[in-house]
Amino acid sequence: MKIGVDIDNVLSNFNEILLEEFLNHDKKLRNTGIINNDVYITRGMFDWSEEELDEFYYNNIERIAKSLNVLENAPEYIRKLKEEGNEIYIISGRDNGEYSDPYKMTFDWLNKYNIVYDKVILTNAYNSLEKAKICLENDIDIMIDDSIRILIEVDNSGITALLMDTPYNRQENDLKRVHNWKEIYEFITSLKNKKII
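Given the sequence above, the corresponding structure tokens read:
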């Protein structure tokens, strides 16, 4: 099987670190804290102006992305999947102008955490159709992502979509939801076993 794997919130703790960074900056800015828990970090969770939000985000996102930690057991289960004959395609929305060298940054991070892969493809995260197109072009069987809008397009393209659970995607009930890499591994293994039978 060819397995597509997003990085942020699927392999890394992106939301956790981003929220920490926003909370720390908010203390310096006005110290009003979270004003709306029901929205994504960059979409009105804090009482920042659009200019304040953009300035902080774009001036810090590369540093933040480089500092991310890997999610528990992700490297081990990816290695296991690869050893069992699956191909691992890292497909991440990092080629969108936010990073000075998105490929080098991504390769360095993957190597730091010993994440094995067959191919890395970076897309524009703001284009919800691009990942589905990449999945079709590369004959991806399963795509694991945390973005509802991206996975709806993937699912509509006939590709199995696994939604990694985050606080910001819990309103979605139609996609198959997973919570950790043990669940992902078990789902892929059971799917592979069904195809053999």
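The chain has two domains: 2-13+69-196, 14-66. Try to locate this feature in the token string yourself.
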